[in-house]
Amino acid sequence: MSNEKNLMEKIREGDEEAFSLLVEEMLLPAYKTAYLVLRSKELAEDAVQNALEDCYISIMKNKDIRHFKAWFYRLVYSRSIDLYRKNARSAFSDIEENPEALLKMKADSAQNCAIQKETQTEMIDMIMELDRNYSLPILLHYYEGLSMKEISLVLNENVNTIKTRLTRGRKKLADLIRKNKNYPLEVNSYGI
Fold this sequence. Notes:
Helix content: over 70%
CATH architecture of the largest domain: Orthogonal Bundle
Number of strands: 0
Structural class: mainly alpha
Largest sheet: none
Radius of gyration: 18 Å
Number of domains: 2
Oligomer: single chain
């Protein structure tokens, strides 16, 4: 039996620490995923909290969860979309129309990634400039290590659609990198 299955059994038996052990390493990536969708710190926190509540309830109801990590990210993504739709009429409807939110997003990203290399932070900022259809698969694949199949489960899309979005997203990212003065050597030497 896998470690995730063991932890889920312990949760059902009333072990209070088992749930935090199960989801602990996925909280920061889940928050990042929610933030990509919602572009708001507070709403992303709410989405993750809603997903955690639903996750706990599903485990307690003995729901059959085979790929916990992909299932949990899908849950976070779904709760993020729910909040996005609920708040679509507010100022968060379109990040391009709100330059203050874009500046805040970059500042928050820099704070959250302070322990990472400066180049990685710049790369994330460039990825965030892409359309959500391209940025989410890139981040889930390259930064969270999810496979194409897992990403297709999370985003509820066909695997081929995910592959296409990754390819197009990489091309758009390469164009952004070419325009950035800090990366001309890397693009010409290594490509993307």
